[in-house]
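Batch job 17 of 40 flagged for manual review because the log was empty.
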Amino acid sequence: MIERLVAAIRSRADGGDALWRQSEHTTVAFESGRLKSCGVTEETGCNLRVVRGGKVGVAGTTTADLDDLLSRALASAELGESVDIVFPRSDALPDVSTHAVAAADASLDRLTSIGAELVSRLTRPGCQISVSIEREIATTRVVGSGGADAGYDATGVAVSVDLARFAGDDVLFLSDQYQGTDLPTARDLDALVRTIDERYDRALTVVAPPEGALPVVFTPQGLAAILLPVRQALSGKVVLQGISPLGAKVGETVFDAAFSLTDDPLLPLRPASRPIDDEGTPSARLPLVERGVVRAFIYDLETAARARTRSTGHGTRGTFGKPVAEYSNVVVGGAVLETGSPALGGGLAADVRDGLVIDELIGVGQGNVIGGAFSHPVALAYRIERGEITGRVKDAAVAGNVYELLQRIAGFGTDGRWQGTRWSPSLLLEGVSVARR
């Protein structure tokens, strides 16, 4: 099927590429401790991009009508933008593990048993436990007029846990997750239970929040607000738009020398790993920030063409819509280390006389993110007093500027772990503004 598309591209357009993906998605959901639903969905789709007369057109389909797909893509090109895209070859591909047989072969009963085990281990009086298990099996193939023709099989497993406790006017929400290419091991499930247990036990005591410019520990989950502006600023599209604070900073020291950030699609058995991106560009490890120095931005084929550079292999697309540049596995610190202590804050609280541990903030992603300034109420945070975590704080907010805070990192925790597609330890940042609400 996809070979016919390439032949049609060469005969009726100046160039183009196509992504074909077949996937099976299985979901098991427990709500309030009981099995609520199980389901399996399958989808096969093809995304086609063509260039004719220097203009780009895109169309997608989940049917087998390739003539209609090509006609719609060519019609789209008549109204498309002019972009001088150079379609890549994919002769030599890196070797990366993206498929786990045990995950692909796991029965619905096996997936359900994982959820039931977690519900049993986390159930406690006055709490509602919800668990979801998701498993995806996918086959991807990319072809293009530049010579790209490659594909790979992948599996992905996500286990999410949510705990809710309502006690009068006090509402407590806790969540955690496992995400990988294979089924979670007994050690992975133990880690999920331990992190929920520790955070829950410490949250039962409510204490008054501190105030002032204070040291704050951001856990791997709580780091979302700190890293989001940096991730946006390192996007080639944002650089092209002229709004990235880092756009003219390549080769300059912008952050603390202890801070590094790497995108690595070649890490074994991670759901975001791949030998090629969705445009056929071979994958490669990309240092974005090295020891505080800005090194690179991520590009897909279109943004690379506009920036007069090469794609970094970060083109991502679905069945419908044009490709966009997206991160794969983002690693804080430059390298993935062995998972450390699950202790809240990764041991950083011991060096703090008065401060906070931030595990989750409200409203992350809202407002002028790209500028680096943030101001968020806390959803889940703990007070540190004389080196000890003394309890959960409510009615508090934190504020600061990411680019200023990341110039003075006071420490890295020993709790490095995966949070979705991002690996990081906790970070201790000085001078975060803390206020009571």
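Reviewer: the log was empty due to a logging misconfiguration, but the result itself is present. The mean pLDDT is 94. Unflagging and moving on to job 18.
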